[in-house]
Amino acid sequence: MTATVDPGRWHARLAELAADYQVPGTSLAFLHDGEVHEFAAGVLNVATGVPATTDSLFQIGSITKVWTATQIMLLAERGELTLDTPVSRVLPEFKVADAEVTETVTIRHLLSHTSGIDGDLFLDTGRGDDCIEKYVAACADLAQNHPLGATQSYCNSGFIIAGRVVERLTGKVWDAALREQIIEPLGLTHTWTLPEDVLRFRAAMGHMDGAPAPVWGLMRSCGPAGLVSARAADVVAFARAHFDSDGGLLTRPQALWEPQVDIPNPHTVGRQWGIGWILDEWQGHRVISHGGNTIGQAAMLWAIPDTGTAVCVLANGGHTAAFQHALATELFGELLGLAVPPQLGPPAEPYETDVERYAGVYERASTHMELTARDGRLALHMEATGALAGVQPPLDFDLLAVDDTTFVGRPDGQPDWLSAVFYRLADGTPYIHLGVRATPKVA
């Protein structure tokens, strides 16, 4: 089932949804029945009042990871490497704290978030063309969140390392390789990575607590993990290029959709990870997607290849996760008659389970969590450590049982429920999976 698009209605509806979820500015583009529709609402910066337009550039954050995965697959199709090539074969200088991982971690591990390498190293290595090279050198001390290939844990660092692989094999800095491999072949006129290029266009400013963010963007060293800025229509064009081999990029784009690992907590972003893409299924339709969050900006891309439909929504603050879900629910329902799965919340009746078994300390290189059993629920205290200490405020909220292993909680003032899943690795080590990251119990 498909429906005819009413542009006037969606122009008004986007503005209404943005207001409902306190989003200062937003841009929406979607491909439906072979036609791209574009809408915008609100302002790019509440301090200047400049209106958001369909050609405005927003930061797409971690959607960039699918672009980097596509760069790697383009090189694989040329015979430069395979998904199972060890990183050390391309980058002999590469090193992490675990010597065995250093030698055996593969490209596939990086692109499916199964390397176990601590993924939250946000390190500014300068604005020079050697910034990614310097970042990879700084990975030498990165510890493991989990053993290689044992589970899935979101890893920004892995995609930056993959970006360095692109640099080594193309002989170009990552930004230039991205332009040559993807941006220019697809004719994307409003897709850039560096602020000096973005500022030539109408560019969104992130907002935090309703005010402009203190910093515009991420450091250049994070490029392959999250530095693309684009208009929504360009992101949709990128997704469209993955529907079939006529897209002008990959001979076999479906290779990126092949499931690589089950996500232990399937209630957050999807059920599985492919190569770059997050994978899910809605009423028998394969869904490939990815989201992205930067400093007060949030982006979401969904694509349903068998219907030829792709949707990108960009926002610069507010309750973005709830906004994205509300928009997707309404839009996919109207266009395709598809029901977007609801966000997981607490059960109608309290679920009784033994919460004492999950109490304790959970820790990875950049995060410390303490779980305390109290009145049949778990009280969570979570704080950033290492380089992020003092940048992100601690979080304290209760976790309510949905079943014996699944819990949900909601920080004060937030409309969204966060889900957590407790599970054990094959060797019996207990973990919590929260925020698409795996964290072991250490005490």
Automatic annotation (TrEMBL):
UniProt cross-references to InterPro entries, sorted A to Z: AmpC-like, Beta-lactam-related, Beta-lactam/transpept-like
Gene3D superfamilies per UniProt: DD-peptidase/beta-lactamase superfamily
Domain of life, per lineage: Bacteria
Beta-lactamase-related domain span: 13-326
Name of the featured protein: CubicO group peptidase (Beta-lactamase class C family)
Record organism: Nonomuraea roseoviolacea subsp. carminata
